[in-house]
Amino acid sequence: KKAMSNQQQPANIIFESSKHLESGEPEPQLKPNLLTLYSMRFCPFAQRTRLVLQHKQLPHQIVNVNLVRKPDWFLAKSSSGKVPALIEPAGWTLIESLVTCDYLAGLSLSL
């Protein structure tokens, strides 16, 4: 199968970084009041959270980070340095796939 290009992304993904950002790179400009998922494209744990976001059709943005050379701004958001890290609109950070998925399961489109 052919991988999805950025033009074929589902409509509920507002932004997804095209590469895995690493140490020394600036933090991307993100839309406020939107779920933000810090991820690594090939991480099965982060994929679990991506699947729940897609299933629930929740608008969100995804920032892919290099897990070997983590940016400082990512470590400020996820002190453990793990993905998935989900930042919800009020600013709370949720880490670990089971925690993020449980949280998302309780959300509705009215977020």
UniProtKB/TrEMBL annotation:
<dbReference type="GO" id="GO:0006749">
    <property type="term" value="P:glutathione metabolic process"/>
</dbReference>
<feature type="domain" description="GST N-terminal">
    <location>
        <begin position="33"/>
        <end position="111"/>
    </location>
</feature>
<dbReference type="InterPro" id="IPR050983">
    <property type="entry name" value="GST_Omega/HSP26"/>
</dbReference>
<dbReference type="Pfam" id="PF13417">
    <property type="entry name" value="GST_N_3"/>
</dbReference>
<dbReference type="GO" id="GO:0004364">
    <property type="term" value="F:glutathione transferase activity"/>
</dbReference>
<dbReference type="InterPro" id="IPR036249">
    <property type="entry name" value="Thioredoxin-like_sf"/>
</dbReference>
<protein>
    <recommendedName>
        <fullName>GST N-terminal domain-containing protein</fullName>
    </recommendedName>
</protein>
<dbReference type="InterPro" id="IPR004045">
    <property type="entry name" value="Glutathione_S-Trfase_N"/>
</dbReference>
<dbReference type="GO" id="GO:0005737">
    <property type="term" value="C:cytoplasm"/>
</dbReference>
<feature type="compositionally biased region" description="Polar residues">
    <location>
        <begin position="1"/>
        <end position="11"/>
    </location>
</feature>
<dbReference type="GO" id="GO:0045174">
    <property type="term" value="F:glutathione dehydrogenase (ascorbate) activity"/>
</dbReference>
<comment type="similarity">
    <text>Belongs to the GST superfamily. Omega family.</text>
</comment>
<feature type="region of interest" description="Disordered">
    <location>
        <begin position="1"/>
        <end position="27"/>
    </location>
</feature>
